[in-house]
C-alpha cells in the first residue's frame, strides 16, 4: 500500500500501518515505524485539530506533567530543559518540535476521527471509517496501532455530588475548563485529592483567587520534586559528553523512582513515615497533619502525587489556601454543606474527581463485521487483544512514565511487523489458554477510585507468561526486544 487514494474511489486510502491518535504514544509510534520499517507507509489519524492529546485537551491553570520529562519525553529526542516537571504549554512545544525535527508531522492528518474499524479475513486488512469534517473517508491498513490514551475525551468521570444542581455559582470540571473563566478574587472549592488537585491549588492561589479550599474525602500522598534551575548541573553533566550525560539522566529518572516504588511496596510503614515527615517539614508551623495528610492506604496503592519545589505545600503559607477532609452532605446555592456540620462558601466549585477510563477511543471494533467487546479480551504483552488480528494497543505505566510503557509496546510491535514481513505472514492473533485465564489481574493495578470503576471496562491481564500485567520498564524492554514472539500468538499466511 502506498498511502495514496485508490483510483476507483477518491475517498478510499491505503497504508501499511495506521496509527490512531497524535498524542505522545502516537508520535512515538510514528518514529518507531519510520525507523524500523522505512519502506512501510503509515499515517497518524488525529481526531482533534492539533497534536498533543491530553496536553491539547486540558486547559486548567497550572497544568503540568506528573512524571519527569526525561522519561515522559522521547528517548530519541531527549528533554533538554533543566526542569523535569514541565507545563502543558512547554510539552506541546516539545511535541511540535519533535514531529518537525523527525518529519513525523508529514504523516499526521488532523480532524480525522475514526468511528469504526473492521478486520476483513478475506482481504487480510483493516477497513476504517473516518469522519473528516462531516464527511466519511475509508482507510485500509494491514496493521492498526491504537494510540488513543486511556480515558474518554468527551465524557469525564461523573462525580456523584449531592445537590450540585442547587449551586448558583459556576461549577467546572477540570477536563473542560473554560479558558475565559475569571477566578480572581473568587472563593473556590476544589473537590479532589489527586494529581490534578495538587497542581490546581497552588496555581489558583498564584492566579489571584481570594480563597482556595481543597475538599477531599480521603487524602493522597504528596511528595516534593526538586527542580533544577538554568545553569545548574550535576557533576556528571560537567564531565561527560552531552549525549552520554543525557542518557545518564534518563537512566537515573527510570531507576531511582522504580527503586523508591519498590521501597514503598516492601516497607510501607517506613515509606509512609518518610512522606509524612517530609510534608510536615515544609508545611506552615502548626499545620494539622491529621487527617489531611494521613491516607488510609499504603504508598503506591494509588499513584503518588508530585509537586515541583514544594509548591503545593507552600501555597498554604499565603493564608488563602486550606484543606478540609470531610464528606459532602449537599451543595447549596452559595457553597457546600458538609456532614460534619461545617459549611464552605464558594463562588466556583471545581470537580477534579478523575477520568472516565477506556481504551481504543470509543472506536467500534469488529472482526469480519462481528463486534468485539474489548472488556472481555485479554492483553498479550500488554499490547495486543485476544481474538483481534493485527491490532496494537499502546498503554503506558501508571507507576512510572506513560511513555516508557508505550515505547516498549512500539518496539515490540515494530519487531513483530518485521518478523511477519520476513516470514510472509499476513495475520497474527493473540490466543490465550483456559489455564492462563485463571485468576485474572487488573491491567492498571492501582486502587484509585476511577481505576477501580474502570475494571469492568478494561481488558484483562492473565496470571503467567505473556499475559502478565506490566511490572517494570527493564523487564518490558527485554520482552520487547528479545522475547519469543510466537508465544501466545497465532500466525497465518493468507493470500488475497
From TrEMBL:
Looking at the keywords, is Oxidoreductase present? yes
The alphabetical list of record keywords is: FAD, Flavoprotein, Monooxygenase, NADP, Oxidoreductase
Cofactor dependence: FAD
SUPFAM superfamilies linked: FAD/NAD(P)-binding domain
Q: Name the source's superkingdom.
A: Eukaryota
Molecular-function GO term, any one: monooxygenase activity
Record-linked PANTHER family: MONOOXYGENASE, PUTATIVE (AFU_ORTHOLOGUE AFUA_8G02570)-RELATED (PTHR43872:SF1)
Name the record gives this protein: FAD/NAD(P)-binding domain-containing protein
Name its species: Lojkania enalia
Amino acid at each position: 500500500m502506498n498511502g495514496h487514494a485508490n483510483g476507483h474511489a477518491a475517498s478510499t486510502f491505503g497504508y501499511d500501518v495506521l496509527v490512531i491518535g497524535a498524542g505522545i504514544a502516537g508520535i512515538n509510534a510514528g518514529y518507531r515505524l519510520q525507523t524500523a520499517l522505512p519502506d512501510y507507509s503509515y499515517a497518524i489519524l488525529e481526531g482533534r485539530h492539533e497534536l498533543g492529546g491530553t496536553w491539547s485537551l486540558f486547559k486548567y491553570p497550572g497544568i503540568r506533567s506528573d512524571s519527569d520529562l526525561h522519561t515522559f519525553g522521547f528517548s530519541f529526542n531527549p528533554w533538554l530543559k533543566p526542569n523535569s516537571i514541565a507545563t502543558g504549554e512547554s510539552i506541546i512545544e516539545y511535541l511540535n518540535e519533535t514531529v518537525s525535527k523527525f518529519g513525523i508531522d508529514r504523516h499526521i492528518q488532523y480532524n480525522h476521527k475514526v468511528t469504526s474499524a473492521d478486520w476483513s479475513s478475506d482481504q487480510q486488512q483493516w477497513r476504517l471509517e473516518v469522519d473528516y469534517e462531516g464527511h466519511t473517508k475509508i482507510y485500509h491498513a494491514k496493521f492498526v496501532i491504537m494510540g488513543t490514551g486511556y480515558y474518554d475525551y468527551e465524557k469525564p468521570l461523573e462525580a456523584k455530588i449531592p445537590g450540585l444542581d442547587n449551586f448558583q455559582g459556576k461549577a467546572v470540571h477540570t477536563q473542560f475548563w473554560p479558558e475565559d473563566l475569571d477566578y480572581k478574587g473568587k472563593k473556590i472549592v476544589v473537590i479532589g485529592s489527586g494529581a490534578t488537585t495538587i497542581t490546581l491549588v497552588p496555581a489558583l492561589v498564584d492566579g489571584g483567587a481570594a480563597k482556595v479550599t481543597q475538599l477531599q474525602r480521603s487524602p493522597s500522598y504528596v511528595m516534593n520534586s526538586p527542580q533544577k534551575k538554568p545553569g545548574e548541573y550535576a557533576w556528571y553533566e560537567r564531565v561527560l559528553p552531552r549525549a552520554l550525560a543525557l542518557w545518564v539522566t534518563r537512566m537515573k529518572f527510570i531507576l531511582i523512582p522504580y527503586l523508591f516504588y519498590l521501597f514503598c511496596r516492601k516497607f510501607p510503614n517506613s515509606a509512609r513515615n518518610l512522606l509524612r515527615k517530609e510534608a510536615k517539614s515544609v508545611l506552615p508551623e502548626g499545620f494539622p497533619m491529621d487527617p489531611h495528610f494521613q491516607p488510609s492506604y499504603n504508598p503506591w496503592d494509588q499513584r503518588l502525587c508530585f509537586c515541583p519545589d514544594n509548591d503545593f505545600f507552600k501555597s498554604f503559607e499565603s493564608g488563602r489556601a486550606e484543606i478540609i477532609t470531610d464528606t459532602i452532605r449537599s451543595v447549596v446555592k452559595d457553597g457546600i454543606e458538609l456532614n460534619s456540620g461545617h459549611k464552605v462558601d464558594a463562588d466556583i466549585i471545581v470537580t477534579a474527581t478523575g477520568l472516565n477510563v477506556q481504551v481504543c477511543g470509543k472506536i467500534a471494533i469488529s472482526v469480519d463485521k462481528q463486534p468485539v467487546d474489548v472488556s472481555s479480551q485479554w492483553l498479550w504483552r500488554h499490547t495486543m487483544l485476544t481474538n483481534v488480528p493485527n491490532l496494537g494497543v499502546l498503554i503506558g505505566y501508571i507507576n512510572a512514565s506513560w511513555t516508557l510503557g508505550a515505547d516498549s509496546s512500539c518496539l515490540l510491535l515494530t519487531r513483530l511487523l518485521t518478523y511477519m514481513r520476513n516470514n510472509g505472514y499476513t495475520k497474527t492473533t493473540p490466543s490465550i489458554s483456559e489455564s492462563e485465564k485463571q485468576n485474572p489481574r487488573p491491567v492498571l493495578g492501582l486502587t484509585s477510585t476511577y481505576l477501580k470503576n474502570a475494571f469492568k471496562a478494561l481488558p484483562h491481564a492473565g496470571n503467567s507468561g505473556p499475559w502478565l500485567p506490566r511490572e517494570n520498564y527493564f523487564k518490558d524492554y527485554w520482552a520487547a526486544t528479545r522475547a519469543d514472539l510466537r508465544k501466545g500468538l497465532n500466525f497465518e499466511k493468507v493470500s488475497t
